[in-house]
Design a protein that fits this description.
By secondary structure, the protein is α/β, with parallel strands linked by helices. It contains eight helices and nine strands.
């Protein structure tokens, strides 16, 4: 499975979001969009209309990562505005399951995200029904944190489960990803690397995206 870069514009210049995406999209396979509700995590970020707006300026698939307490309440709006992948947190319980079910009804691809302290084994019974697993490599909701190495063993565990069953499930990693940590994530078995500050705070975002895309393409 060929890996790819998914730029995450949380810390991009929001006043010039289209221009920011244009700097990196030639080296990207998707755009990763973080949604935060101030409850599931303390921060607030984006509303579904950003999907509508990004759909107007980019042909890339939009991967929506819902760090919200009730993700089932967002599914229809995101689908209506053109989302391609909807990833919800396992820790949301029945809200997550309802969101996944509704997303499949709306023909969206689905993903299940795990906080750092949630056992990776919880995904095993759902691997046949989802398209991707998102391994958090920071505490969700606080940007600028360094990558936490404990995520690497979690990527390896998810990769072992997926490979054992020969499933086409992607493994995305989100949080503190730069060239060095991205290379380690790909080596551990990730196929999608979401990157924010490493791209949009770089002196040359286009060149940073080119280098990180080359790293992601090394996924097995």
């Amino acid at each position: 499975m060929r890996g790819y870069l998914a730029p995450s514009p949380l810390n991009a210049d929001q006043a010039h979001l289209a221009e920011q995406i244009a700097l990196v999209e030639n080296y990207a396979g998707a755009i990763h969009i973080d949604f935060m509700d101030g409850h599931f995590v303390s921060a607030l970020a984006f509303s579904p209309v950003v999907v509508r707006d990004l759909k107007r300026v980019s042909a890339l698939p939009l991967r929506c990562h819902l760090m919200v307490s009730a993700p089932d309440q967002f599914v229809d709006a995101l689908a209506d505005f053109g989302a391609d992948v909807l990833t919800v947190h396992y820790e949301c319980g029945q809200h997550a399951q309802r969101a996944l079910s509704r997303a499949r009804e709306r023909s969206l691809k689905t993903g299940l995200a795990l906080k750092l302290d949630t056992p990776v084994a919880v995904i095993e019974d759902q691997l046949d029904e989802i398209d991707s697993v998102l391994i958090m490599s920071i505490v969700p909701g606080r940007s600028g944190q360094p990558f936490l190495d404990k995520a690497l063993a979690r990527i390896e565990a998810a990769r072992a489960m997926i490979d054992e069953r020969e499933l086409p499930v992607e493994i995305e990693v989100d949080g503190g990803v730069n060239e060095e940590t991205g290379r380690r994530c790909i080596a551990a078995g990730a196929t999608v690397i979401a990157a924010d500050s490493a791209l949009f705070k770089a002196d040359d975002p286009t060149e940073a995206a080119r280098r990180m895309a080359a790293i992601a393409a090394g996924a097995r």
